[in-house]
Every structure is written in C-alpha cells, then in structure tokens.
Design brief:
Helix 2 packs antiparallel against helix 3 and helix 8 packs antiparallel against helix 9. The chain has nine helices and no strands. The longest helix is centred in the last third of the chain and has 29 residues. The protein is mostly helical and 227 residues long. The chain has one domain. The radius of gyration is 17 Å and the shape is globular.
C-alpha cells in the first residue's frame, strides 16, 4: 500500500474535496486559541481515510484504524467513554478486519468489489446491533458517561457503519453520516465546557460531507462494476 499512489488515484473532484477538507481543518486549528496537536493529527488522518474509503481503497481502512486509536484517546480525555469504547473496542477492530475483507475482494488494483445486502444479512445485522447497543448502554451508564442518550445512539450508528463497511455495502456511508450528526452534537456539548474541542465539531462536519460523497461514489462504483 502506497499513500502517494492512492492520492494520485483520486479524480479532480476528490482531490479538491480532500485538499479543501484539510485546509478547513487546519484553519479551524489555527484560529482556535486552545490548540491540541492530537486533535489535529486525528482529524487530518480521519479525513484522508474517508476520501480513500470513498474510492474503495483498502488503505483508507488502515488509516481508519489509526484514527480510531487517536480518537479513543481524545474521547477518554473528556470522559466520553462511549466514544472511547466504541472506537477502540469496535470501530478499530472491525476496520482492521475490513482491510482483510477489502484486499480479498478486489476490483482492479485500488478498488474493492462492492457487495449487495440481502434480507438475511440485514436481519442478522439489525439483531446484532440491538444486542450491542443494549450491552453498551449499561456499560456506559456504569461509567457515568456524559450525555448518555447521544452516546448510546452513537454506539448504534457506529456499529452499523463499521459492519456495513466490512460487508462492502454502500450503505456504510449513510450510517457514518448519521453518526457524524450525533458526534457533532456530542462535541458541541463538550466544547461548551472546554473550547479545546472546537476542532472536533469542524472535524465531524467535514466528515459528514465526505461520508455523503462516499455513498454517492460507492453507488457509482457498483453500477460501473456491474455493467
């Protein structure tokens, strides 16, 4: 895997989206008087992961593992244990498995073969999501997690998104988009207590744009692959 080759594989629109996203994140970092290099590193790696995921490039999932670890640390610092547990205990491992799944199901050199979801897969996924959400709710409540309802919803959307990513479904991007909206709300609440987390609001607002593009891109990929 070569990140320079992956970046060169982006089309003009994707390159503009990536550069624009990076620029906005850097600008948000610079104007924030409470600068945190860990936040900056996580956001830059995260947005790079998303644009490569939109291309179906397995390197995007490698970067997602790194982002998940950094984001878990950031979440721990604010006592968002739900986010920490979700990304370290669920998103990162599933992203690691997705690397293997994507590499084993290629369509060309730097593109995964898009899969279809059938009734059986959706049923199993929904049942697993309900179980995971129920278990994590009590774990988060035990740790007195701030903003428990939103943190619980984040568990649900994150699990669905990560699982659909591993299953190579375009709908992964829809659930990541829903998760981005939840996370924007969570970090707005965190920023009201500590302005250092302002950059995380900008981060997930930009993630939302990239995830929506990811859904559009994967729909095009599937159509092209099936023609």
């Amino acid at each position: 895997m070569n990140i320079l080759k992956s970046i060169r594989n982006l089309n003009k629109y994707e390159l503009a989206l990536w550069i624009g996203s990076m620029t906005l994140l850097l600008a948000a970092f610079m104007i924030n008087s409470h600068k945190d290099m860990l936040n900056l590193a996580a956001t830059l790696i995260g947005v790079t992961s998303l644009i490569l995921n939109a291309k179906g490039d397995a390197l995007g999932q490698v970067l997602m593992v790194i982002f998940s670890v950094l984001y878990g640390v950031i979440s721990f610092k604010f006592r968002y244990y739900g986010e920490m547990i979700t990304y370290l205990g669920m998103t990162a491992p599933i992203a690691a498995m997705s690397v293997i799944t994507w590499i084993r199901n290629p369509y060309g050199e730097r593109e995964v073969r898009v899969s279809h979801m059938n009734f059986k897969k959706w049923t199993i996924l929904i049942i697993c999501t309900v179980i995971v959400t129920w278990i994590f709710y009590y774990i988060l409540r035990y740790f007195d997690t701030p903003n428990l309802p939103l943190s619980t919803i984040s568990i649900t959307t994150s699990f669905m998104a990560a699982a659909l990513t591993m299953l190579r479904s375009p709908y992964y991007a829809i659930f990541y988009s829903l998760n981005d909206i939840v996370l924007i709300a969570l970090w707005v609440l965190a920023t009201l207590e500590n302005p250092i987390y302002y950059s995380m609001i900008m981060c997930f607002a930009i993630f939302l744009i990239n995830d929506l593009y990811g859904f559009y891109s994967w729909r095009k990929m599937r159509k092209r692959q099936e023609d």
